[in-house]
Structures
1.
Amino acid sequence: MLLVDKLILREIRMPLKEPFKISSGVEVDRRILLVELHDADGQVAWGECVAGAAPNYSPETIDTAWIMIRDFVAPRVLKTEFKSPGVVHAHLAHNFRGHLMAKAAVEMAMWGLAAQIQKLPLAKLIGGTRDKIATGISLGIQKDPEALVKRAAAALAEGYRKIKLKIQPGADIQYVRAVYAALGPDAHLMADANNAYTLGDIGHLKKLDEFGLMMIEQPLAWDDVLRHAQLQKELRTPICLDESITGLERAQDMVAMKSGRIVNIKPGRVGGFSESIAIHDYCQANDVPVWCGGMLESGIGRAYNVALASLPNFVLPGDVSPSARYWAEDIVTPEWTMDADGYVKVPLDKPGIGVRVEAGRIETLTVRKEAVG
Ligand code: OSB
Ligand code: MG
């Protein structure tokens, strides 16, 4: 039984070690929205909202999410008994459109709380079968191909099992060609365009086929499914959808229309764990491999991603880079680390999210705070 009687919203700011540039924008100082749930027995569980400062990935921002959680999500969840975290998603979806990142922050924290109460590792609670997650790195757009080659070579040497190159018009074919030439055909390379192209670019995008990329992520519009099917027909490289998959039904659309062959599941994008698990199960039944994406989360959000990625159909490396790739100091202990073979361990020896949340450090980093309930 879950019964939350107080929710605290917080904004913290954490400077990234280096700016992270994608086709639609750049992050320098990550503004992070955290939620803290307090239940009737004094248990505290933390969650993280993946929304960014600007609406360049999804229409949500951390400021819209703040309002939606305070005014609509929290009132639905507070002082309401849930028999399991699995029913929270439907409760939040009823006559409440969109705002999936706001909902996800709270829904996931409910899963974390349930794991804590049941004294189970979160990965075990959801039926995870892996004890370590193969890890990929997502490399932002660099000033020239040489700079990207340097970053990619370093990532390969560190053990990363997948190297994702952010691309955009003017920083695509030449950049990928340079990395492919330097790292060789055995490096597991992929590209992510974050919506930078249109169907008019089919001829141009076909040039990527010669590099045998694992996949190209979300080349077309953030909410498109149909046009990706037209593009996939022309490309040898598998398309992976990220932004477009906002729930199970969009994954079903992708399969029905053949808009892509791989799904990037980010629990924060699809409204939380229940929907992520539904997409995972559907993809597994339809022979569509999935992997867990990232949103430059702190160690709290990472904990949820790592647990989710322990499910069996997460067969491709996830964007679950270790804490030190982003931050001088994370807000959890121990920090997330990756071994020399490119794996992050699933903390199966600890209940809940498997890392200690450093509440004192969070208090120091807090620039805004509001309690509901
Ligand atoms: O498209 O996957 C993306 C970060 C912010 C917004 C969108 C994306 C990303 C990443 C980062 O690729 C992955 C990570 O957390 O390391
Ligand atoms: Mg992406």
2.
Amino acid sequence: MADGRKGGMPMLGWWLMLVGSLRLASVWFGFFNIWALRVAVFSQAEMTEVHGRTFGVWTLLTCTLCFLCAFNLENRPLYMATFLSFIYALGHFLTEYLIYQTMAVANLSTVGFFAGTSIVWMLLQWNSHGSQAVKQASLKATVLDAGLTVVAYDSVHFDSDLPHYGTRGGVRRDPTDPARVVSSPLMWAEALELLLHRLRPRLDYARVAAVSGSAQQHGSVYWKEGAAAALASLDPAKNLAPQLAGALATPESPMWMDSSTTAQCREVEAALGGALELARLTGCRAHERCTGPQIRKMYQTRRRVYDSTERISLVSSFMASLLIGGYACIDETDGAGMNLMDIATRDLRRDALEATAPNLQDKIGKLAPAHAAAGTLSPYFVQRFQFTANCLVVQWSGDNPNSLAGLTLSDPGDLAISLGTSDTVFGITDLPEPSLDGNILPNPVDPNTYMVMLCYKNGSLTREDVRNHYAEGSWDVFNKHLEKTPPLNEGKLGYYYKEPEILPPLPVGFHRYGFDNSPSGSLDEMVEHNIDQFDPPSEVRAIIEGQFLSMRGHAESCGLPVPPKRIIATGGASSNQIILKIMASIFGCPVYTVQRPDSASLGAALRAAHGWFCNHQGRFLPVTCLHSGRLDKTSLSVKLAAPFGDSEEDIDLLKKYTLLVKKRLEIEQKLVERYGRRS
Ligand code: ADP
């Protein structure tokens, strides 16, 4: 049964509310009208008032369970207790009918219908209601006018708007292999069409000059032989998705969360001279999510699908292909996540192709820069939605590159830090340093520079864990601790990994150190010693300082300019001014925040304008030409949240933090040698 939703609550929740309401009626009858209870339930028995009240109070408990569970389907003990209440109820009614013969068959079928349906439904959705941490994955549309102001916005949520695809967080996990995570290209096509229908009442499509988009990086779509012809001859009188069903070699696309390709990663790395060499050649080492290892796995395990594939698209180029009615090139920025593209020349590498799968070059096709035009809108969209025939489709790109554009990062020295469930750092440089830690991609708004990206698994959830243990579960107390403790934390340094960390590759564990000397002299003078636990305020400062010191150290080692010119902070924790002040002190630059969330969608809209502008001018022009001198009048405006003071004291503090960054990385290296994975 699909996990349908209505107004945000899954259908099972609505069902439990209905059953709870019926149970509430039984409570009323039990207490105040046992005649009705007798007719409806125990028609073959004499009932006493005390029996009615006992039945009423038991039913009140089960009714409470139904209502609580309806709103907390992800709560396992509550789900289990509610499920058992139906089992007990059914068992009770069955014994009353079969053994004690106090019920007629009509009574049994009514109560049995509700208990039985609930049992089956809850069983079917046993694992479908995980923690609220699962994000609502969606396709969003942001429409900018010529002044770069948002004039329309809408979204389609995959799980709730398209429940027939059975996704959770936009993907499906293989119950037999949790490492396998897939999604459906047909769902994305249907979402695109639904989104265009939703926007239509508010938008005159004939006035749209250009369209672009953002999609999760790494996912791959396998087009079957003959799909190009199907794409070019879509019938505008019919829906999009059904016409594409026969054009795919497989209805499932592996997504970035898929981690089932460890063996293929090691094979690709070995063939190209090791992990670091692969990072030097293609921009990143082989991660399980990367498209190359994913394609290799498809070739090795589903040979028939691979052989019948005419073209492989990334999710981004798949969506652009739908819009132009033909195969769109893979965008060079998004393509850097494949382990197939030479990061310097931006061409496919023959050795990487050969290490991945045979006859791959033709299946991948050509690459194009993110600001290039993929084509014009196909007759399908022109006729179905009344766009103009010359509406430009600009290359779609990945979600992080689009966020970079939406946060207005454009030049070397611009840095963004997203403090969300996981933390992400990305910035622009013209001299990237290949490393095992970060990913290097072409800059989506300037083909002459690069984007460097670092991903941390321990972000907000780990900060929350420290808050819950040492700050009474309150951000206010957390902030008071930060204000109470001095910068540099009196030489206390902490490494907090609640989840296995990617950067550095370390297992779960908290490590705490103190120094015999404060960070003022040389590195050699700073001798660390282990500490079991700090006082609560120091724990709080240690996690915040530690996370930013790590980000700064790794950003620098990947070639991002030091100090950055500015940082744009986003994500849930960027609402915390005190955290942003510490960020400014450690990085030595001002920190800004943005006015609008959804930077990826906004960035895609900005890139559409940028691509249109370059196309119109017949050459590449910097994206800043679009908003130079008037950024604060657009929807892309940023606000200064934490200045970097340039007093002697601030500069002196920055020098000490610089020393501490080095020390932190030195200790981190020792931890990796002792506990970590460096293959
Ligand atoms: P996601 O990555 O899931 O989109 P968000 O960017 O929405 O996450 O960030 C949510 C997180 O923000 C929460 O988990 C919470 O820990 C954190 N957060 C919210 N308010 C604060 C605050 N005042 N200080 C620090 N962190 C905060």
3.
Amino acid sequence: MNIGFIGLGIMGKPMARNLIKAGYRLTVYDISPESIEEIVAAGAEAGTSARDVASRSEVSITMVPDGPEVEAAVLDSEGALEGAGPGSIIVDMSSISPLVAQKVGKACAEKGIEFIDAPVSGGEPKAVDGTLAIMAGGNREAFDRVLPLFRVMGSSAILTGPVGAGNVTKLANQIMVAVNIAAMGEALVLATKAGLDPDVVYNAVKGGLAGSAVLDAKAPMVISRNFKPGFRIHLHRKDLRNALLTAEALQVSLPFTSLAQQVLVSLVNSDRGDLDHSAIATFIEDMAKTEVKKP
Ligand code: NAD
């Protein structure tokens, strides 16, 4: 099967690599020529635009930052939809607003092209291992056709509803992750200022009810002062903005998400937007003048 991959960043590169390793023929494109070269060296062919990639592919995957980039990569005159042939499928795996996913899905449907929104969770380590959690929206038949690709990139792939549902699910995921990291930051700052070793505290609680995938991934990063992304603060801010806009449209109050969003805005303003989102903890550290690290 010929697969197109558009958007070769922190996530797109390892996902594309795994598809190549699984034996798929890949044509790739990114606005950064260096990123294209890197994946061509791993066995892909270079595309000259998203449109070119789609014209050579039965399934075209996009993995770009946000809605405007998805619209550019799919709907522009040089976008994937212009190149997509009959029977082909466009799968957007970026995390974007469900409303934008529906807009792109509608434009695809008008041209007879199937569209699936299929954002992921798990971050770079799981993208590398091919163990992402994939949450999809679209029709069942199209989902079943791309399921073998999802099985290469992820360890779970669930169809959650029609187009847009994948991104609603992803927003739910991002709310839980952000608020969890903030709670972890408060807990570890308190323990550290009380004179405890935060690593000992982490090990003592991780097997109990407070244990979580978030805690296991992020507490060691904070304690070792490693904020290399991973998942950038900028991107999490984007996700919570999309969550709050969606909540506003649905008349849902999200008080804790709003608070987490304010923290993310403040971190961006203090030049921490390119750090991993585990650096949410540094906001609480600043207020307590206490750094979470081993004594
Ligand atoms: P990134 O910024 O590292 O990569 C995005 C890539 O898209 C870049 O290489 C950029 O040059 C390219 N791009 C931008 N506009 C383009 C266009 N119009 N055409 C072609 N290429 C274009 O971002 P990332 O961390 O790989 O994240 C990608 C998406 O996955 C985001 O929506 C993010 O929220 C989501 N996500 C990221 C993580 C993570 O841990 N990094 C985890 C889950 C989901």
